């Protein structure tokens, strides 16, 4: 039996204010909250519009249960001076601030760099926007899908040239927002580490640390060698559908019952093993297919041979045969497959969570995983403003009479 002490989650004791809406900044704060940080979400009267997105149950968004988890909801009208003052008092007692308004939006509320510096020396501030805080496009409106298009992802998720007149498909989730949110998380953590390191050296850094994350740049940063290949060779990488442009064979192959199975046998050894499995020793022995470059030149031939074999099995049996041969492969999972996956369940990546509104729900687990100090799902997405009074009293220092007065004036809810 293990006697190892389980430490507190890694970000316990860190307080972060979120002035965000929709996806990017709220996703960032959710990740930080999962790792133990206290998240104070500032919402307008009526709440974040994303509360109404996605499938509904009991009159509320199921996605919100996940997107808003591990957060405290504080409703403040930032159009009123008293609302600005309330948020200022919360910021003054926090470690970081994450926001995703258009550039300059925070300053227009009265929270420019100088004011934030006065409120909380050493504050870490992450700005998430479409195009960044500077540059000629900084004021343009953007959502994640715009970042995906400008960053180059939407071009590569298109159908292969000449195969269809359909528009380029998106990946099915707001991945541009989520990527930007993850970069904001990295920035916040780096800022907190820097502040801590300086303090340990007896050099407290009282200046605020600013992080500037653009949706467009977050996506572009993932584009492998796309820009470098163009700069050096004038090469514009093209969509390849389910294949990988740089290695073969890797593709989605059909099964007898109409499903698709990914097979990634793109090393020399794996190719030989797969050809033996499908009974194509002739292809394994072909000198033209001995290395990856040759296989890329003859990828249509190879894929046709694999497809002819794969479609003789039902998908489940096909996956079992490939796994038995130790070839990287998998069914393409639906939500039902994910929910029933034993590996996800064993690691807590799919877990049952009690939600006050919905009852027992399945939530995705916490990434990254700290075995010795795991983060926890302490609460599901809060009701609008459910923590307003508690936060103003416990953190901002308002008296009960002052809170009642703010309520009467419609400043808080």
TrEMBL record:
Pfam families: CoA_transf_3. Keywords: Transferase. This is CoA transferase. PANTHER family: SUCCINATE--HYDROXYMETHYLGLUTARATE COA-TRANSFERASE. GO terms for molecular function: CoA-transferase activity. The keyword Membrane does not apply. It comes from the Bacteria. InterPro entries: CoA-transferase_III_domain, CoA-Trfase_fam_III, CoA-Trfase_III_dom3_sf, CoA-Trfase_III_dom_1_sf.
